[in-house]
Structures are given as C-alpha cells and as structure tokens.
Amino acid sequence: MSLTDIIEIIIISVLIYYMLVWIKDTRAWMLLRGILVILAFVLLAVLFEMNTIVWIADKLFNVAMIAVVVIFQPEMRKALENLGRKNILVNLFNFDFNKVENGKFSDKTITELVKACYEMGKVKTGALIVVEDEIVLTEYERTGIAVDGILTSQLLINIFEKNTPLHDGAVIVRGDRVVSATCYLPLTDSLSLSKDLGTRHRAAVGISEVSDSLTIVVSEETGKVSIALDGELYRNVDAEFLKNKLAYIQKREQDTSKVKSWRRRLKDVTKIRKESNE
Ligand SMILES: Nc1ncnc2c1ncn2[C@@H]1O[C@H](COP(=O)(O)OP(=O)(O)OP(=O)(O)O)[C@@H](O)[C@H]1O
Question: Which intervals hold domain DAC (predicted)?
Fold first, then answer.
C-alpha cells in the first residue's frame, strides 16, 4: 500500500463522514431510512430469486437517482453554498466578488436597526428586514426596488410606513446600507411553524433556510419582534436579544475575514517598510 492509497482512504473517509453528517442534519435522513428499507426488500428478493421484482428494481434505479436529485435540490444547493462559503475556498480564489471589502456592519447600524424595529413595533408597523452575511443575496435583491442608502432608523421607519410604495415585502441590508426594498423572499414549507403566523414570518424563516442571513420580523398584528436565523424562528425577542444576535453576526463576519485583515496588515507593513526605505 503506497502513501497515495493511505491519503485516498483518509479523503474518502472524511467525505463519507461529512456526507453522513449532512444526511443526519437534513430531510435526507428520512429518505436514507426509506432507501434502506427498500434495499432490504430488494436483497430479500435477490435471496429468494424473485426475478421480476429484481428486474423492476434494476429498471427503477436510474429514475430513483434523478428523483433524489430533484427532491433534495434545496438541501444540495445549501450544502454547495456552505462549501463555497468555507474560508479556504473564499480566501484562495477570492470568490466573493460581490462583497465590498470590509463589508461588515458597524455598531451604529446595530443600534439603528434595534431602534427602528422597536419603534415600529410600538405603533404596529409591519416590517421584514434581512441582514445579509457571507452568502450574497443578489437574486432576492433583484426582486425588489434598489435603494442603496445608509441605514438609519428613520430610513427603515419611512420604508415600512403603511400605504407607501416601498412598504410591502422585505428590505435587504448589506453592510451599513439598505440595498433594496419590496424584495420577495422564498417561503418556508416547515410544518413546525405556528399556525397563527402568516406569510411575513414564513418568508423570514424561508430566507434563513437558504442563506446565513439574519432576518428581523416586526408583526403588524401584535407589534412583536421576531428573528429568523439558520431556519429557526425566535419569537417575541427583546431589544437586548436582538442586539446580541446582530453582534454575533457582526463578529462571525469579522472571524471569516481574518485572512483578509491579515493580508491588509501585511500590505500595511510592506507600505511602512517602503516609506521608511525611501
Ligand atoms: N414571500 C414574501 N416575501 C417578502 N415579503 C412577504 C412575503 N410574503 C408576505 N410578505 C409580507 O408580509 C405581508 C403579509 O403578512 P401576513 O399578515 O401574511 O404575515 P404575518 O406573518 O401574519 O405577519 P403580521 O403579524 O405582520 O400580520 C405582506 O404584505 C408582505 O409585505
């Protein structure tokens, strides 16, 4: 056995491990159990030489593979997006062309967001605000009207004011700017979401399932503020909780851009050296 074989075994083991973890974390787990039942059935058919069943199973195999890809398209897409999001790829190939350098939002933006949400809650103005993280939401941004303005509580309150042209749909926030309003988001088909929640909350959970964004919902009915993050809905949160979650997203961005800031620091050092040489 050569060194290459050992490396190959390690790579395949790691890939199988990550695939099993992925299957366990998604709806694919149920599917895998279903497939195992069918495989056991086919195995029995082979053992007892039930040739017609074996022939049907053989013919259905290719169709089943295509069906799996179609059924799990959202999960596969998310898995690939997660792969592309990993620091190694992003930093090696600099794939995040759409991200502005130093694109994380400031503490001021957090304060303005929290202020706007609770002020809108007080007067029961409905709002849906998506705070983008690493995954760029261009395809959803395109469904709305471009705004590209610095985020302030006044701007958000103005956008969501009832009977104004921009109040319907979602606002997308990138860094310290509101990039787009009236955006249409994908709705979740989660059955675990409470029946008393309507499409605004479903849209918030929907976008959190397909991206790493944090979405804030202000209910028009109750004035309560909720957060959707990683497919979970945190209902009726207080200002402190919202602030902490936003700070967590802000820090997470800072963590992923460690290599960038390291590069920037390297550039600065080279610049200082050049200047001192001159
Ligand atoms: N797919 C979507 N993308 C973006 N915004 C949406 C989407 N679906 C609904 N909305 C927004 O939600 C509003 C309707 O909210 P609805 O009353 O159905 O939701 P809700 O979850 O009960 O919220 P609320 O508590 O505010 O009533 C729409 O007017 C629209 O602004």
Answer: 73-239
